[in-house]
Amino acid sequence: MPIINPFPIVNYVSPEYFCDRVQETKDMMSAIKNGRSLTLYSIRRLGKTGLVHHILHKLNKQKNTQAIYIDIFDTIDDTQLVNALCSAVIFAIEKKEADVLKTVTKFFGKYRPKLSFDSLTGSPTIELDIVTDQEVKVTLDTLMKIIANQKGNFVIAIDEFQQINYYSNSRIAATIRSYIQTIDNLRFIFSGSEKDLLVDMFSSPKQALFRTTQLFPLYSIPEEPYKAYIAFHFKKGMKKISPDVIDDIIVWTDRHTYYTQYLCHRLYERTGKQVTQAILDDTKYQILKENEGVFINYRRLLTHQQWQLIVAIGKENGVDAPTSKEFLRKYKLGAHSTVRRSLKSLEEKQLIYADYLSEAERPTYRVYDLFLSKWIKTL
User: Fold this and answer.
1) Helix, strand, coil % over all residues of the chain, rounded to 5
2) pLDDT (tens digit per residue) in 271-288
3) How confident is the model at residue 238 (pLDDT cuts 50, 70, 90)?
4) Which of 21, 41, 72, 223 is deepest in the core (most CB within 10 A)?
5) Across the chain, which distance is largest between two alpha carbons, in Å?
6) Tell me: the pLDDT tens digits for 74-114?
7) Phi, psi of 96 (to 5 degrees)
């Protein structure tokens, strides 16, 4: 399908529709070239998955390099992860269906492999009948031997990698650790949407994957490259947009990748020959109005104290002292202990997050969903 809107909000399209990340791309490519696996982390929807696909796109342009992506968010155990990994690797190595069947039968025949197609994506998948922990280990070892025997280099990107923490009695982390340390032609890129959980997996001495990768934090795209990107694509589409309107977009979305892309996507769709401030304001209003039902539902699902706290944080554009007397008094939040419990609960629900990116001694608490925080300001 041809691209008619230059601000994609779902899938990575191509370098032409990818904004900046020049230094991040350079650093990640250098790490992989020099033999380091990576753990890419940030708050949600800052563009991690897009950057991963951008890196894989570049790697697949290189000779003797095979870059593979899997998303394990919907997996529930080691077996499903192994099946997803086997499917991705075998179909990357063998381009013809007949060769796929030959390879699968040769190496995994005893697990009664089934070849099918994903009902949503239409992509071919392999399902192996593996049950025990030992079968999981043997299957992965076999797959890794296949990779080790290939002439070229392999890069496997596993998105939503923190999901393995929710598997029952999983041993997959220790198994992957051994592959990172022993297979010379294999590198991993791990990424995920639960930043704290993911970082802990690679930075805590208690974890099997401790210090096995280079930790790679991702921040917002700088202001000037983002402005230039927006101006270029509106101009290319023969739609006039003033620097003042672009400034408004950047400020309103705080350069948060998903929200900036989404606002520009909708604005591009609604604009004829020129973006006016009125069109921009109305687009903002429409976005918040469309999501209002979701936001109101949050109020029903949260306790009164939790809702009052998230409203207070939203109205303040972030709070670094949520239990201070001044803050409690201003928003009539009650006792310190109640606020602390609400704060913890809202973090666990991923409705707020603690921003440690500044050099301040304590974090700033912010509402996770930027559109929710903008809607809160209208209350």
Assistant:
1) 55, 10, 35
2) 999 999 999 999 999 999
3) very high
4) 41
5) 70
6) 999 999 999 999 999 999 998 887 888 889 889 998 889 88
7) -100, 140
Residue 123 neighbours by CB under 8 Å, 6+ apart: 87, 91, 117
pLDDT of residue 125: 84
Q: How far apart are CA 350 and CA 362, in angstroms?
A: 19
- The predicted pLDDT at position 49 comes to 96
Nearest alpha carbon to residue 339 among 361, 310, 368:
310
Question: How far, in Å, CA of 94 to CA of 344, rounded?
Answer: 48
Angle, vertex CA 322, rays to CA 321 and CA 327, nearest 5: 90
- CA 318 from centre of chain: 22
Query: Do residues 309 and 342 make contact, with C-beta atoms less than 8 angstroms apart?
Result: yes
Q: Which residues contact 342 (CB under 8 A, 6 or more apart)?
A: 303, 305, 306, 309
Place of tokens 């929200």: 259
Alpha-carbon distance of 90 to 126, in angstroms, equals 9
* Whole-Å CA distances, 88 to 10, 123, 205: 21, 10, 31
What is the rounded average pLDDT of the residues 308-321?
A: 94
Q: Tokens 């000779």: give the residue.
A: 63
Q: Would you say residue 235 has pLDDT above 70?
A: yes
Helices 133-148 and 97-108 cross at an angle (nearest 10°) of: 130
The enclosing H or E element of 347 equals helix 336-348
Does residue 118 register a pLDDT over 80?
Answer: no
Cα–Cα nearest to 40, from 78, 29, 259: 29
Contacts 24+ apart (CB under 8 A), 338-344: 338/305, 339/305, 339/309, 341/305, 342/303, 342/305, 342/306, 342/309, 343/309
Question: How many CB atoms within 10 Å of residue 281?
Answer: 12
Cβ burial, residue 248 (10 Å; 0-12/13-18/19+): middle
pLDDT at 98: 80
Question: What is the distance between the terminal CA atoms of the chain, rounded to a whole angstrom?
Answer: 41
What is the rounded distance in angstroms from the CA atom of residue 201 to the CA atom of residue 181? 16
